[in-house]
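help with this.
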Amino acid sequence: MVRERKEPHGLVIVNTGDGKGKTTASIGLAVRAAGNGLRVLIIQFIKGRWKTGESQSLPKLAPNIQLVRMGMGFTIERLRDPRIPMEEHEEAAARAFERAREVVLADEYDMIVLDEILGSIKAGLIALDDVLGLIRDKPPRLHLVLTGRGAPPELVDAADLVTEMKLVKHPLQQGIKAQRGIEF
């Protein structure tokens, strides 16, 4: 029998995998949380400044949901904008992580989504140990959501809930370009 907890218990949630939907699921979770009166902050680590559906719609849900975009764009070599030096990506990731650490420790939000932080770890922009430390230091009531491909086993172990999005079929495999409202 599972006993119901009386004290708040913030979860560490990881949305990972090679399939589409990690950010989308996290934003859905954020909308659900905001609908229940929770204060939500979303920090986007990798995604650049281009116009996306979430960057257009989420500000309409303020002050319940706040979106902060801090990344410089893709860091994967075949997708990276060559006009942006890797040093700028590194600096942006460091600023984003420092901001995340500040808001987590300030205990002003009920849920914080660190979108594409796993990509920042994989690209070597953020140390896994720093993220694990953030999880250990978070206030007990805070829900912390981490997204991106390739969640390291240590992060999976530290999480309460892990969902893996599995790629079965994707339009890009058929030569269909990314669609506004679906991909971005």
Notes: Helices lie at 22-35, 53-57, 86-106, 117-122, 128-137, 153-158.
